[in-house]
User: What shape does this take?
Amino acid sequence: MMIDDIPNYHNLNDEQKELVDIHIEAVEEAKSAVAFEARKYKDEYDQYEPMYCGFAWAKIRPATSKFARALRKAGVVDEVAWDGGYTIWNPSDWHGQSMDFKEHGAKVYIRILHSYGITGVDMGSRAD
Assistant: This one.
């Protein structure tokens, strides 16, 4: 993910840009971590993915936090989820079906946010 992928990045103030930059870093770290795990899995099991399909996401609550508002203003998220907050689906952008890989990516995304002191972000997942 690049700054150019964020629709309204250039309309943000400096504090909002910092928060969106953290989001971008977290997405890139999640992508990198999942790619590494996928290569490791392929080498070890001679398969591309574990055979468990599903979804994973990061839930940002409340939708009124500085981080959530910055993502909303930037155009990263648009609607509050039915159960509150904003949902970042598949933060690692893994295009396979593996729930394991998607969960790993969501956990890495959240760990990066927590390292910057951004709280109120949890992982969710479900089998397909």
